[in-house]
Here is the input.
Amino acid sequence: MARARKPLEIKVVAERVEEDVEVSELVSRLEAEADRELAARSVTLRWGRGQIAVVKRAAAILGVPYQTYLKQVVFRQAVSDIEHAEAALGPRRQARARGPRSR
Here is the structure.
């Protein structure tokens, strides 16, 4: 059950703040990263306990959270599958497999 959060109190102390250029660039970069993360989509997978246990064990061996492990493994496998399919399809079939071009 989520706990109720105490409201934030915000107090304006100045209308203009002078920033260090490096700090400003860092803040801008972190904001951009946060924006990209918010744009990410959530995916739900239904797996059995045994399957999840195997994934968690593999992730623990590599020292990463299991969600991170899943994302890395699935992405690498997808890239590999695409590369193998494109190599097998040849140039003419690759264009059709990608679908219509955007204009």
Q: What stands out?
A: The chain has three helices and no strands. Residues 64-103 form one domain.
